[in-house]
Specification:
alpha+beta; four-stranded antiparallel β-sheet; 4 strands
Length: 91
């Protein structure tokens, strides 16, 4: 497999992982606070569904955590692509 083909395959796979990591959700059902957290490894979004006072629809977005998540995932992608393109030897 050539380096370019491997790099394209890796980029597509990593892009899918990036989308899954950013949209990853965990639902917490507590008696007085039902909410869904979004993001991996950092939680960048919280969707509050129910509180002690009844059902609500509140979104809390942490842009700093979203930017750090994107920087981590895209930074790892750049490093891995560099390693693929510059260290893999041709046969």
């Amino acid at each position: 497999m050539s380096r370019n083909t491997l790099a394209i395959f890796f980029s597509v796979l990593w892009s899918i992982l990036l989308i899954l990591a950013l949209t990853w959700s965990t639902e917490y059902v507590w008696p007085d606070y039902v909410h869904v957290n979004y993001g991996y490894p950092l939680v960048w979004g919280v969707h509050v569904l129910n509180t002690l006072h009844g059902p609500v629809d509140i979104w809390r977005i942490n842009l700093t955590a979203l930017y750090v998540d994107l920087a981590v995932w895209l930074g790892m992608m750049i490093v891995c692509l560099f390693l693929i393109l510059h260290t893999k030897t041709r046969k």
